[in-house]
Write a structure and sequence with these properties.
The chain is 55% helix and 0% strand. With 67 residues, it is an all-alpha fold. The protein starts with a helix and ends in an 18-residue tail after the last helix.
């Protein structure tokens, strides 16, 4: 857990890394591709690339996922 100062420092660091990365996806692709990437969820990625088809909307919580 960060305090206010730690959160500010971490936020500035992540912003600097993103802004300085010429391969960051928002700079590397056209706007319509970036929009498609941003609306993709973890659940979408899991169901497309595995045999798991019964996924909850929140891909970070899976109490009874089946293969």
């Amino acid at each position: 857990m960060f305090g206010e100062l730690g959160a500010t420092i971490a936020g500035l660091q992540f912003s600097s890394i993103r802004n300085g990365d010429r391969f960051w996806f928002e700079y590397a692709y056209p706007p319509e591709v970036v929009a498609e990437i941003k609306k993709t969820s973890l659940t979408d990625i899991i169901t497309r690339n595995t045999e798991i088809k019964n996924m909850p909307t929140d891909g970070f919580f899976c109490s009874d996922c089946t293969v």
